[in-house]
Structures are given as structure tokens and as C-alpha cells.
Design a protein that fits this description.
The protein has a single domain (about 5-200), classed as Rossmann fold. Helices cover about 20% and strands about 30% of the residues. It contains five helices and eleven strands, in the order βββαβββββαβαββαα. Strand 1 (about 5-15) and strand 2 (about 25-35) form a beta hairpin. It is globular and about 50 Å long.
């Protein structure tokens, strides 16, 4: 067996407010592994931690605890200007999220890949003009066929958003209050009461 594409090991991120009387305002926990190419759907309310999770996976945010291993490398130990060779985060209009420089580059590892193994699409915009949605779904499937791992995060404000997730995603992650729930199918996902509450009238 080869190295898993992605290992998220005991990952935590906390945010605090206040200088003297510090209080925790947000806490994210994640622990999972993806061995082979897949397309994984991600959903959850605004502010639940979805974008924070993506930033941690791509190394543009520093974890409070834990590690992210992408194709055998701890992404937070890889040069900042090379982390997108391992995992890349596209935000909304397919803009690539930039990295924060926290350590001198000469102290960091060189990325083992030239093209990212993990692609994270964070609430991408889907133009409903003829053929565009099909083009994007084909693109996600091509990435998978080429051995890549794809995360597709969507906030289903339109009925066709759920249709996209059901059509192209093989399993799902639901994020709420910084906690992750995993589902092997869309049917399994919607048996989870917090998911049903979140989707509300969107769920048929």
C-alpha cells in the first residue's frame, strides 16, 4: 500500500479574544485520512470552520495542534512558495488563496511534487449558462481520474447546488461548530438531523 494522499492527524485550531481575560471564540477539530483519489463534498453553516479547515490543509493557516500530511510531507514544513504543489485552495471565483510566511524559506522542505495532489474548491461560483456546469463537473472528474483528491465545498443556496453535490461527490463531510461529521453517501448525510436542519427547504 502506498502513502495516503492526505492525513489530517489530531488537527486543532483555536481562536481567542481578550488580552488579560482570554476566552476561546472558536475551536476546530479534525482527524481523518484519505487513501485514494476521491471527490468529497463539504457542507456546513457559515462560520462553522469550512474555510479554516481548507486553509489548514493547504498550509496557509497554522494549526494550534496536530499535523497535515500530504503525500507523505507535513505541509506546514514545506516552503511557503511550494505548498501549492501539494495542495491548492481555490476560493469562490477560483482565486487561489495566498500563503502566510511564518518561517525563513531556507529552513523549510522542498515540495515533492510539481502539481498539487489535493484540490480544494471553496464555494465556487457555477454559471448556469449552457454547458458550464457540465464543463466544471468534467474538470473535477478529470482531476480524480488523474489521481488527485478533490474537495468541493458548497453552501446550497440554489436547488442545483445540491444536485451538483449528489452527482459528482462520492462521500461527504459536514462541518458544524468546528466539528466534522463524515458520511459515505448523500443519503447517509441527510439522515443526520443537524444536516436536515441546515438544508431546510432545500432538501426534497
Amino acid at each position: 500500500m502506498g502513502e495516503p494522499i492526505l492525513q489530517v492527524n489530531g488537527l486543532e485550531k483555536s481562536y481567542y479574544a481578550g488580552l488579560l481575560a482570554r476566552r476561546r471564540t472558536f475551536h476546530l477539530e479534525a482527524h481523518f485520512s484519505v487513501a485514494a483519489p476521491e471527490i468529497i463534498g463539504v457542507m456546513g453553516p457559515n462560520g462553522s470552520g469550512k474555510t479554516t479547515l481548507f486553509e489548514l490543509i493547504t498550509g496557509s493557516n497554522t494549526p494550534s495542534r496536530g499535523e497535515v500530511i500530504c503525500v507523505g510531507q507535513n505541509i506546514h514544513r514545506v516552503r511557503n512558495d511550494q505548498r501549492d504543489r501539494l495542495a491548492i485552495h481555490y476560493h469562490q471565483s477560483y482565486q487561489v488563496r495566498h500563503f502566510r510566511h511564518t518561517r525563513p524559506q531556507f529552513l523549510m522542505e522542498t515540495a515533492s511534487l510539481d502539481y498539487p495532489a489535493v484540490h480544494l474548491f471553496d464555494e465556487p461560483q457555477f454559471n448556469t449558462q449552457d454547458g458550464y456546469i457540465g464543463f466544471m463537473l468534467d474538470f473535477f472528474r478529470k482531476l480524480r481520474r488523474d489521481g488527485r483528491l478533490v474537495f468541493l465545498c458548497m453552501h446550497p443556496s440554489e436547488e442545483f447546488h445540491l444536485e451538483i453535490l449528489q452527482e459528482v461527490c462520492e462521500r461527504f463531510i459536514f462541518v458544524q461548530n468546528g466539528r466534522l461529521s463524515h458520511a459515505a453517501s448523500f443519503a447517509d448525510l441527510t439522515r443526520h438531523e443537524p444536516v436536515r436542519a441546515y438544508l431546510g427547504g432545500s432538501l426534497k
